[in-house]
Amino acid sequence: MVERYAGRVPAEREALLELPGVGRKTANLVLGLGFGIPAICVDTHVHRISNRLGLVKTRTPAWLAKNVHGWPMAGGDRGWERFVDITGNEPGGFGNGFFYLNGQNSDAFLAASKATRGQQVVDQFLQDMPDLFDEVLSVSDFAWSEQPWIKGSFGSPPINGAWMVREWSRPEGQIHLAGDFTSLKTGWVEGAIESGLRAARQIDPDAPAEGSDR
Question: Residue 98 is part of which domain span?
Fold first, then answer.
């Protein structure tokens, strides 16, 4: 960055993506928080918060070439409900995304055969949005209610869940917990930042703030 941009962070997505270690999520985060440019940050772990998912891998992220972005990048009253782009800088230039289903749509999805239900959602989407996907390479699905080790998910502590706050705020030896689900902040980015700062202060209370003169 010093050699190419004279030590200044570029304000263009394409330029940011050329920097080593910078993917689409980081680039959008820099654009949004650093320059006030509208951009959507979608982390590749975001599927944790959904109730039912259909994960899709395509030959290329063809929707990006059509300037289709966002959370979701497509939505409607059909059985596929919402499609979210989670394409990063994976080798091969593939496209990645997931369908986010809730309520009656998720119930209908879970009632269908597990062998075919994911492809059924994709097929319906292709009928409704034939120009957004190119070749679909793989389809898989995930449902919290089918996981024997969890049986559910939550986006914030439930009633009588104050004990969770105490647990995630307290380090266990040298293990410090941070992340968007270890915070009471409602926004994912804000929660990740708040919890990250908390963990950093626990590790080194005297560490100077980024950009300080110390």
Answer: 46-146
